[in-house]
Design goal:
This protein is α+β, with helices and mostly antiparallel strands and 172 residues long. Helices cover 22% and strands 28% of the residues. It has a 7-stranded antiparallel beta sheet with strand order 1-10-9-4-3-2-5. The longest helix is centred in the first third of the chain and has 12 residues. It is globular and about 75 Å long. The mean pLDDT is 89.
């Protein structure tokens, strides 16, 4: 019997990197709306070794790089919770646009200009919703609806008819 995939494909780093490059261009399910249903509920995850936080800002869902633009510390240390977008290191606080607005001793210690504030805005990722599913993309040029195509409506219907979560698995 002829093999369709060579055995090296399962262990080859170059094959793996090619796959990752293709997969990164898609939309990725990150959570259900019910996982972050209250204002300031969040989840934090690593997607392709990129630390990301997804947060509910008054029923508007946003995703940002989970790294403070000031000293590059992780903003979220827990995988989920509720709280404002505040770095644990120096206490910098970010708004729903990822802009720093609460900076302790901003004028006396940092002397930050408006240009600096714009430059220090957190990197944002695209979020889209299909029914109850929240998706994120890192570099896709397609909308979620384009990406899912004929499965968009079906996935939306499935999500609306889901029961409560029974079991969760995390694979590394």
């Amino acid at each position: 019997m002829r093999l369709l995939i060579s055995p090296e494909s399962y262990t080859s780093n170059s094959f793996f990197q090619k796959d990752i490059k293709k997969i990164r261009k898609g939309w990725h399910f990150v959570c259900l709306k019910s996982d972050i249903k209250k204002n300031n509920d969040y989840i934090a995850l690593d997607l392709f070794d990129i630390p990301i936080t997804v947060q509910n800002f008054k029923n508007k869902y946003k995703a940002f790089l989970n790294i403070c633009s000031h000293r590059l510390n992780k903003i979220r240390s827990k995988s989920k919770g509720n709280g404002i977008l505040r770095c644990l290191y120096h206490g910098w606080t970010f708004n729903s646009k990822g802009e720093p607005y609460g900076i302790p001793m901003k004028d006396s210690l940092f002397k930050i200009t408006n240009e600096d504030l714009k430059r220090l805005t957190l990197k944002e990722f695209n979020i889209d919703i299909c029914g109850e599913f929240i998706f994120l993309n890192i570099e896709s040029k397609k909308t979620l609806k384009q990406y899912l195509g004929k499965y968009y409506k079906e996935l939306k219907n499935i999500s609306i008819n889901l029961g409560s979560e029974i079991k969760t698995n995390i694979f590394h």
